[in-house]
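Running low. Any example?
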Amino acid sequence: MCGIIGIVGKQFVNQLIYDGLTVLQHRGQDAAGMMTYHDRRLHLRKSNGLVRDVFHTRHMLNLKGKIGIGHVRYPTAGSSSSAEAQPFYVNSPYGISLAHNGNLTNGEELKSELFRDDLRHINTDSDSEVLVNVLAHELQRMGKPRLEVGDVFDAVGKLHKRCRGGYAAVAMISGFGILGFRDPFGIRPVIFGERDTEAGKEYIIASESVAIDSLGFTVIRDIKPGEAIFITKDGKLHTRQCAENPQYSPCIFEHVYLARPDSVIDGISVYNARLRMGETLAEKILQQRPDHDIDVVIPIPDTGRTAALPLAQKLNVDYREGFIKNRYIPRTFIMPGQEIRKKSVRQKLNAIGSEFKDKNVLLVDDSIVRGTTSGQIIEMARNAGANKVYFASAAPPVSYPNVYGIDMPTVNELIAHNKTEEEIAKLIGADWLIYQDLDKLIESTQTGDVHINSFDLSCFNGEYVTGDINQEYLDHIEGLRNDGAKSKREASDENLIDLSNDV
């Protein structure tokens, strides 16, 4: 899960990209980067940290140009070294930079091909670097001193044939324009918009519609699965379907947790989908426990709020804010390392004792992944004086790894894998635990948008839409992504050669 943005403007775009990355900060807090093009030169700034910490005044003054791309990163298979901050850049051909959200499931195979057949060197563990080199190689094979838009689309079509997995990307071809494209299943989101200025029309590509709205642009539409759009540096928009057999299978976990509630993804309001999740979960509670003794419904901020409110209304139970969140602590789900996550939960939330004392409390969260946060929050509720603590998840049990760009790395770290609800409740310390049903999650998300006939549900049902995932691959990513492997990579990061800021 990362955030990407690209803008073709009539004035310098550095401030717009900075503001857009700030809006997309929830999608990645490990690193940030921006690259612009001006007067035949590229300007790059990227480093570890939040957007506000990476870009200082001196960097912004240097990031000149009316065209540029940006990225916020959250690490999955790679390390958190600044060498893996994006955008990535390759000099040949034409000067191509790229920012990417997602994960290539055949990344290792492509690395070998790039080295052996394409004579290209990959310097990091990031498959985003693989993606930019595949694109560069396919453009280089054109053998043209000057590109045309059709050549770019042809190269994306060949990229789709080589690359598997979930990916949404923006790329900048120096002196030519900005490219946006999406995998043939549309797993990861990407959307584009426009606005009219006195100097002419400007265009934006971003991971979520909220970035487009907040910058004063108007949404045109989502990039379709397998489609590519190209905006020339003088502001002309071109689109083409570049995949042979595209199908809509977007990641449903975007609506559960990843996306901001004020975003609209593939025509589906994230906020409305989460409202419906709360309503259907309340119906299940009433079916299982019509004579429930719940005194109060308390959401776990922030993503539990939207579902908790209609849930409380349908149960005819008081809704209360029982936890206050420290907004300066990053999202614990996307933090590297179990010990860091445990420590941050206590720093992030504090209970209001009067909302818990002598009450039977139903806590509502968007999902339960590792169970670390859930267990500590339940303990906090008990320490605040709760009589009984029930727990409701607006999503079904997360039982399988996600391989398309979300850090659900190993089955051993997923609390729901091969366990009953009763066993999970005992592990997290809840008096009762209830999960959303998968069919109700689909129904909640699908309502109002009939063209989405299927979703990527792999983290819930273990069925991977790309059709290329087997146990050997899952074992491979487990070795790469478990917390122990990440810790070893962090310790060895100082030995990396960082070629990223040579532009």
